Amino acid sequence: MRIRPHDYFMSQKKVLVTGAGGFIGHHLVTELKKKGYWVRGVDWKYPEFQQSAADEFELLDLRRWDNCLQATRGVDEVYALAADMGGMGFISCHHSEILHNNSLINIHTLEAARIQNVERYFYTSSACIYPEYKQTDTNVTPLKESDAYPAMPQDAYGWEKLIAEHLCTHYREDYGMNTHIVRFHNIFGPNGTWIGGREKAPAALCRKIAVAKLTENPVIDIWGDGEQTRSFCYIDDCVKGIYKLMQSDYYKPLNLGQDRMVSINQLADIIATIADYPIEKKHIAGPEGVRGRNSDNTLLRDILKWEPEISLEDGLARTYSWIEGLVKERLASAPDKKQVIEELKTSKIFSAPCK
Fold it and tell me: Is 175 an annotated catalytic residue?
């Protein structure tokens, strides 16, 4: 029997992606559309670099209860990615704002999904929930999901994420909601924040090295001694992992990231090799976060029978190419090149709102 267009629309799985104007949310919307879902995107801003592929895109402040009810209407699944966040230049000094905003977003969105009888709910947590006392050395032991306790997360951002994980777990226990929880480890790639203070280390270094290359000034700033370590996961792997976990019956928190650890100095050297331009590192004072962090992917491999596949070098090559193009455009259109170069070379550290 031939399915009429209207019947096909009605038979499609309908999903909501919150934070659809952000980096990961935008990529996730694109992937879900490719898989045939009907998608509603919600955020308080549109995607910055590309038009959203969502069937509907609504500008809503999800700190408000009524907006969460509106956002979750008539959908089968919710991917909850909305968050007030950024790199260390932002989260290290906006504790009250982050804790307030993200608490409201997550409490309201989860309860609205329950009231609307949403079938599946996907919550995006973070490696920032892991205790600082387990991340004091550059040669850190990879973090297993069970390492979250005794709890001592990094900053207010990590505390709120951990509480929201518990909220999802209790909603599953008390109301029978089908919840899933992922802990991201440093996701990066094109079409993400690359300037302004909310960008993460890979984007910031790609930008600084592109400026160094295009202005023929090899000196780049790095916060701290650059020996702090992290693992970095490319966005395509992140989106694939999100989808695989949502389709599974696993409901406990699960790491999603690469398990290859590099220092920030090594990260800069890899990008410089990709750019084919030698750099000189200038180490300056700035927020560094924990001394070391890496993902233990044992449980990820066991549960999903998969792990991230795209190498750091391949992911950075794609990201660097995109950011270098943006830097070229910014320099070409700048009436005051000296001022723009200085802005592009510098990573912004936000002042705390209480100061």
Answer: no
Containing domain of residue 65, as a range?
9-188+233-256
**Could you tell me the CATH number of the domain that includes residue 65?**
3.40.50.720
Q: With residue 324 as reference, give the H or E element that holds it.
A: helix 312-332
Helix axes 312-332, 201-215, angle to 10 degrees: 50
How many folded domains does the chain comprise? 2
- Over the range 133-153, which residues count as b (16 or more CB within 10 Å of their CB) and which as e? ebbeeeebebbebebbeeebb
- Whether the ω angle into residue 47 lies within 30 degrees of 0, i.e. cis, is no
Burial class (CB in 10 A: 0-12, 13-18, 19+), 208: buried
The C-alpha atoms of residue 82 and residue 17 are separated, in whole angstroms, by: 8
Q: Examine residue 240 and state whether it is found in any structural domain, yes or no.
A: yes
Residues 38 and 165 placed together within one structural domain of the fold: yes
Task: Tell me: do 135 and 108 sit in the same domain.
Answer: yes
Q: How far apart are CA 319 and CA 110, in angstroms?
A: 33
> In b/e form, how buried is each residue of 42-57, taking b as 16+ CB within 10 angstroms?
bbeeebeeeebbbbeb
Digit-coded pLDDT (tens) for 83-136: 998 777 787 778 999 999 999 999 999 999 999 999 999 999 999 999 999 999
> 157, 171, 234, 320: which is the annotated catalytic residue?
157
pTM: 0.94
Residue 296 falls inside a structural domain: no
Helix (H, G, I), strand (E, B) or coil at 281: strand
Structural domain contains residue 216:
yes
Provide the percentage of residues in the chain whose pLDDT is more than 90: 88
* Same domain, yes or no: 248 and 267: no
